[in-house]
Amino acid sequence: MKRNLFLSASLFCAALTMQAQQVAFEEYDLDNGMHVILHQDNTAPIVTTSVMYHVGAKDENPEKTGFAHFFEHLLFEGTKNIERGKWFEIVSSNGGTNNANTTQDRTYYYEVFPSNKLELGLWLESERLMHPVINQIGVDTQKEVVQEEKRMRVDNSPYGKFREQIGINLFKNHPYKWQTIGSLEHLANATLEDFKDFNKIYYVPNNAVLVVAGDFEVASTKKMIQDYFGPIPRGKEIKRNKYTEEPITKTIKATYNDPNIQIPAIFTAYRTPANTEKDAYVLDMISTYLTSGKSSKLYKSLVDDKKMALQVFAFNNSQEDYGSYIIGALPLGKTSLNDLIVEFDKEIAKLQTELISEKDYQKLQNKFENNFVNSNSGVEGIANSLARNYMLYGNTNLINTEIEIYKAITREDIKTVANKYLKPNQRVELEYLPVAKPEN
């Protein structure tokens, strides 16, 4: 009976995938090099306008980190035609929402409006690109904003610096060794000309992709895009440095003391391949298999069965040049951090020596098929996926075909990739500890 129920669930998920509507899109380039992607969906009267710039923390000068993230804030300050502090007021008063985010690889801005405000969204993004006002008052204001963000999310947040510490130890040459938030000291010492230079290099149409997704008419939208973005001059070609890392061949042991925690944590981190490689997709599956949900292997073993951990997690952070695969846990009771590492390695060893069960394999496939269907369920998510797939993967149509990569992954692939990347001598072991209390 259980098998029949499981088979029914599998068939249902497969049917969902088959029924998932293909995301139709058109893409082309403006004469100034800006890439444009259009996805028309007239089922609801909303439209997303977004621009992704191929600039992130990895493009920064090592002595001037935090610039990419800083610009995420700075370019809402105002433009030649938008009074300082009025950006969000304009958006909200017209029934819209907007936001932005930055990673080590790219920066993304977007608005969601009622479809009759599409032109407003296009104008706003063209203003950000063509007429930004970068002056001392705006820079000083956003320095304070970023300082507060770092204090809240990193400096004063429990376990807030574990990514920073992993990056420092996992990468020696590549800019992935510093975090997107960057250095407040670097930002404090930067001049106005430093910020203007950064804008001039990276905020150019030939370093950007514009996506319009939702309820619009194609011909009139193309005309508006040409009117608003076509006149913007092409920027100089961007010279990007290439960084390589020597393989890790010996366990890197690191320790960090966090004054914001009382319970220690252990993190193991492995350097992994670029997001375009099939192995990165396999590692996504391994991450899900080990710790996604209460039925996952490490959670069930360490939290439920053996009562050794308060929490356990794993995630594969795929990026444009390299990735990082991280497993972590918080101990329970008298469990030592080393005890947790031993348990991590037991489950990894099973992946390396045995094929996962057919049942577990099908469960993984069902989960990724369901995630795929859900990821394309709204125009806001579709806009993001189209921009990311074009810019970081070089294949916009992954929005329709990425699930085929996961479906092609075999149990043998999981075993092979676990052996290739998840070896003890190829990782960082970070003991993340409370600050010792002074003796009386």
UniProtKB/TrEMBL annotation:
The keyword Signal applies. InterPro entries: Metalloenz_LuxS/M16, Pept_M16_N, Peptidase_M16, Peptidase_M16_C. GO terms for molecular function: metal ion binding; metallopeptidase activity. This is Peptidase M16 domain protein. It comes from the Bacteria. Pfam families: Peptidase_M16, Peptidase_M16_C. Residues 36-177 form the Peptidase M16 N-terminal domain. It comes from Cellulophaga lytica (strain ATCC 23178 / DSM 7489 / JCM 8516 / NBRC 14961 / NCIMB 1423 / VKM B-1433 / Cy l20). Residues 190-367 form the Peptidase M16 C-terminal domain. Belongs to the peptidase M16 family. Keywords: Hydrolase, Metalloprotease, Protease, Signal, Zinc. One of its GO terms (biological process) is proteolysis. Residues 1-20 form the signal peptide.
